[in-house]
Specification:
378 residues, Beta-Lactamase, Hypothetical protein af1432, 6-stranded antiparallel β-sheet, 54% helix, binds fe (ii) ion
């Protein structure tokens, strides 16, 4: 086997390894970065870019880049029909160009913005479900040669694989976004029913996330907790208005009715599908009023029997209740409420979680969520 053939075989194996990653749990952008690198090496290109359309903003963005000016290219955005990339995406047809300066579709702006000098170019569309959703571009075949039909065929086959993975990841992200926005809408609808607790669910979700990050939960678990926290009081939908919106203190009987909301919430959420993804939210709704010493409700769980999400949300919920103004009593400051939480550690709340929360408050200099928003908008 010649040196060149051995080199090609090796590069091809590297590229196939990069493609195997498309089915892994890795971030699709990281996988694309590896694919464009291996493709450039295999086809002997100086640089390569993977362009992806953003239909919401009507632009084409560089998503993965390889080459000497790669960091500059990542900032470049093209109009949907701009340049050779735009032409390939609009037509769905590959372009094999030996000298871009003679091509009427060439947009020299990209080179000007990035500081790269493009000569030869191979651009193939990423087609998924019959629609071009991006393009893979390889620039400047080394040693002054031109890209060949064989290069183009190879790039096309691999682009099709990438397109499918990209499409799946976009769909997954879209479904996740729809899911979160529906949960948020549901939580907001609930909060609107009780004028005294406006924004309660969002704040409890935010406090819970602060705690989760502090104890080192991974991103995926933090997101799951955030959604579960948004829905923790969803059972209040089943509590009559005259009790939920009552501006004065509740009677014992009324309080007993309010205490049914965890079970109602768990029941409502348990009808959602798929079960395995909603399980944590069901538990959080049911157990967020359980306390470490078994004095909570509805099941008087104690210690380790209480799921972690419910323990976290229980602290966040209590903190928000203490710091929210009511018609019959003014809310405590963050400092005062933090002290209160400390007096209940070990009896009501998990000590490590309370400390994690107080550390998070301290790091934020006890600035309230509202004050934080006001500062951001300054
Ligand atoms: Fe509650």
């Amino acid at each position: 086997m010649s040196e060149e053939t051995r080199y090609m075989e090796n590069e091809l194996l590297n590229l196939l390894d990069a493609f195997k990653e498309l089915n892994s749990d890795l971030d699709v952008k990281v996988v694309f970065q590896n694919i464009i690198l291996q493709m450039a090496k295999l086809l002997d290109a100086e640089a390569g870019t993977l362009w992806v359309t953003d239909p919401d903003r009507d632009v084409i963005k560089a998503t993965a880049v390889y080459g000497p000016t790669s960091s500059n290219i990542l900032k470049v955005e093209l109009k949907m029909d701009e340049g050779i990339v735009g032409k390939v995406i609009c037509s769905g047809k590959l372009q094999l160009i030996s000298d871009v300066s003679t091509d009427p579709a060439w947009a020299p702006r990209v080179d000007k913005d990035s500081g790269f000098t493009t000569k030869s170019m191979l651009t193939v569309p990423l087609i998924a479900k019959g629609k071009a959703i991006g393009a893979m571009q390889l620039l400047n075949k080394k040693n002054g040669q031109n890209f060949t039909r064989k290069d183009a065929q190879m790039a096309l086959v691999l682009a099709n694989q990438s397109a499918l993975a990209l499409y799946n990841s976009q769909m997954f992200e879209e479904i996740q976004n729809i899911n979160l926005s529906m949960i948020r809408t549901l939580a907001k609808t609930l909060d609107k029913r009780d004028p005294y607790t406006a924004g309660h669910s969002e704040r409890v979700a935010t406090y819970s996330k602060w705690m989760a990050l502090k104890i080192g939960l991974d991103t995926k678990t933090c997101e799951e907790l955030y959604k579960a926290a948004l829905l923790h009081d969803i059972g209040k939908i089943g509590i009559p208005d005259e009790i939920l919106r009552k501006p004065t203190k509740l009677s014992n009987e009324e309080y007993e009715i309010i205490k049914k909301h965890p079970e109602i919430g768990a029941d409502i959420l348990s009808t959602m599908e798929p079960k395995r993804t909603i399980m944590n939210a069901v538990e959080t709704a049911r157990y967020h009023h359980e306390r470490l010493n078994g004095s909570g409700y509805p099941d008087q769980l104690a210690g380790k029997e209480i799921p972690l999400f419910a323990k976290i949300v229980g602290i966040a919920d209590t903190f928000d209740a203490m710091t929210t103004d009511r018609p019959y009593n003014k809310g405590l400051s963050y400092h005062e409420a933090a002290k209160e939480l400390m007096t209940c550690k070990d009896t009501h709340f998990d000590e490590a979680l309370v400390i994690a929360f107080l550390t998070a408050l301290e790091e934020r200099k006890y600035i309230t969520i509202e004050e934080g928003h006001a500062l951001e908008g300054r």
